[in-house]
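Quick start: what a row looks like.
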Amino acid sequence: MKIFDFYLLKNLFVATIFIAVTLAVVVFLTQSLKFLELVINSGASSFSFWILTMLTLPRFFEIILPLALMASTVFIYNRMTMDSEIVVMRATGASPLSLAKPALVLAMVVTVMLWSITMWASPKSLSSMKQMQQMIKSQFSTLLFRENVFNAVIPGLTVYMRERMPNGEMRGLMIHDSREESRNPSTILAQRGVVLATDEGHQVLVYDGSRQEYDLKQDALHRLNFERYTIDLPDSAPVQQRWRKPAERTIFELINPDVSNQRDLDNLREFNIEIHRRVSAPLLALVYTLIALNALLLGPMDRRGQGWRIALAIGGVVVIQGLFLAAYNVAQSVPNTMPDDVVPADLNLMTRKNWFGLFLMHALVFVPLAVNTFFLTGASEKLRRKILYGIGAEPSEGAA
């Protein structure tokens, strides 16, 4: 039996890794589109693009790993049933629980991995991604010139661009510079220009235009026509300190918020909801695996196919996942700060709504977990016979 368990566990592991990697690649490609425009327009390096995209993956593993494990369980057990391997093991007296043991072991390992991801890895990567995204926007904000818009690069420097050519060249430029109080404001008109990165910083190199400066003291307009002119750009805009959302904080930061930060105190309810989600969500990997095992291992065998069993397992997973997300949204729908004119009855209703959402989140995890585990054990043999075969009917699933 140990050899068969190892054989089954190896097949489940390989299938889970393959499905998880496939889903991760799909997520990676879709998420990369979010940062592609930012990186291209800002002139950031390709290394920044890959790092930003990679940092988005850990939070998606919370969904990818449970679904990959459930899909591999359905695939492997259905294939082994069609190849009569499960039938042979049942004939030797193997119970549904013993046949399910390899999948349950892998599900528990995945659950522990998901706890480590949700408690620490996912919030750390999300926080780093948000911080890096903000730094890129701030660092390269001087280069993000939009067409037909007066771009306020920094206070005192405004750039207008009529169009941007495919090669990056800008056409129809107007640049107003009033950064230095000791100098008169100037306006530059140019037919074309490009952004250059030099050792001293970024510059705008413009061609075929004029520089106009009005002298208030002499009440005179000075004009300089040029073929080539250079304007220095600031290296970066100041990076503002961000308030990290609950999803960007580790479990230790959620349990111990900063009491000196008023915004942390105003969002204690959000912190509490996030803690509940991180505790219960990883257990969905175990729940989905149990649903697949119950659908494929219990009941009479039908060698013509198990399509309805597979559909039942998929349907159960979809329903639980959908209700879990709905319960999480219900818990989050209550505002953190109540209006001053709210009546006690409405306040009581919103509080009940919050607790109902949290209760439903845990119920959708622990109730299916307990029910499906019970049906796999020998304690449910009589009930299984009554439900699956009818009263007085003889089961054909071997030793239950």
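That is the whole record. The chain has two domains: 2-138+243-389, 145-232. The mean pLDDT is 84.
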